[in-house]
Amino acid sequence: MITELNCRILENRPLGPDCFQLLLEAEQEIEIRAGQFVKVAVPGFSLRRPISVTDVEDGVIRLTCQIAGKGTAALAAKRNGSLSVLAPLGNGFTLPEEGSELLAVGGGIGTAPLIGLIREAVKRNCRVSAVFGFRTPQQALFREELSALPLRSFYAFESEGENVITLLRREGYENIPFAACGPVSMMEAVDEIMQADGEFSAECRMGCGFGACMGCSVETRSGMKRICKDGPVFRRGELLWKTLR
């Protein structure tokens, strides 16, 4: 059930040149699955901002956000007080079975919603690999965090002439069940080379965030779907990449 939460800001710190991390303490316990998102009310702005959930631990919601306009810039500058948050929104990733294998493929800020899935897979004693891509090393997220977990992690940087596709091929990961999130061009390329089942998390501009306004509807192989309600996570084969560009 979607709930409006009053969340106290525990921390708001920059992560690189254009990203920041929010730690929010909710007024009540709430279950948020890996891959779901929230909508945050930004003081002074009429529309809430949709932000994917990085993870939830001990009642603290972690959000990793990229500054994309005036609203997110204002949110990045808010260091204390509280925020109104609608949660949980959308569906989430399918959690892997105990002891299975999982490949997480992320690009840019699209790496953020994969962290909760990765942590859950580690708890389930899964063999986890993460392949993340960024434009430059300075923009890389979660490097120290992943290095502390029992998994294999790889980072590709465009400035160094590498990307997630070249890494996937180099490591021979095409046959591992996967979850992917990032730029549409990256996800389309992942879709082309992978030979295993997987899921993709899509994003687009949203209005209400819970399916009423139909503003985020896109054409899929099974008809029109709402990214906010029917997604943001879709099984491989559902999305038509041309409709997301």
Query: So, CATH architecture of the largest domain?
Result: 3-Layer(aba) Sandwich
- Could you tell me the number of beta strands? 14
C-alpha geometry: globular
Average of the residue pLDDT scores: 96
Q: Which strand order do you get reading across the main beta sheet? A: 1-2-5-4-3-6
Point out poorly predicted stretches: none
Structurally, the number of domains stands at 2
Gyration radius from CA atoms, angstroms: 17 Å
N→C terminal distance = 31 Å
**Tell me, what is the CATH class of the largest domain?**
Alpha Beta
**Given the structure, what is the number of helices?**
6
Estimated helix fraction: 10-25%
Strand content: 35-45%
| Secondary-structure element series | EEEEEHEEHEHEHEHEEEEH
Give the CATH topology of the largest domain. Answer: Rossmann fold
Summarize this structure as a short list of keywords or feature phrases.
single chain, 245 residues, alpha/beta, Elongation Factor Tu (Ef-tu), domain 3, Rossmann fold, six-stranded antiparallel β-barrel, six-stranded mixed beta sheet, 6 helices, 14 strands
